[in-house]
Amino acid sequence: MFLGVDIGTSSSKGVLVAPDGTVVATAVREHPTATPRPGWFEHAAEDVWWADFVSIVAELARPGIAAVGLSGIGPVVLPCTEDGTPLRPAILYGVDTRATAEIAAQTSRYGASAILERCGSPLTSQAVGPKLEWLRTHEPEVWGRTRRLFMAHSWLVHRLTGA
Fold it and tell me: Contact at 8 Å (CB) between 143 and 79?
């Protein structure tokens, strides 16, 4: 059997699949997205991502699981300590628009055409770079303690494996 878990914006989904591809069972856990200010969208990694993962595994786990696959929303910014402890809730992908000023500043600094040529798309609220600059500017104490940056799936992998 193979177990897959996907962390989404408003819910997490799990699927247990037999080696021949037959879906054996599924599970869904709806969760809230925090909006502490207009334009801000966040998830608390422990309360949302980890809690959903543990609950889905508890429901779907069977003897003989050969592998676990993880996927999740991205790009998000979850600043953590060296050991993976979250320092603040994760800043979600394009729905979070707090870094609008940083997008404009980086576009001005590097040039819209240079960004497009190098990255293949303009900077938007989807981009991680402006979110990192926002974090450094507006939450310097968090920035100073950050040693690792994760997305939902990479944080779960780290939490499960330590790597």
Answer: yes
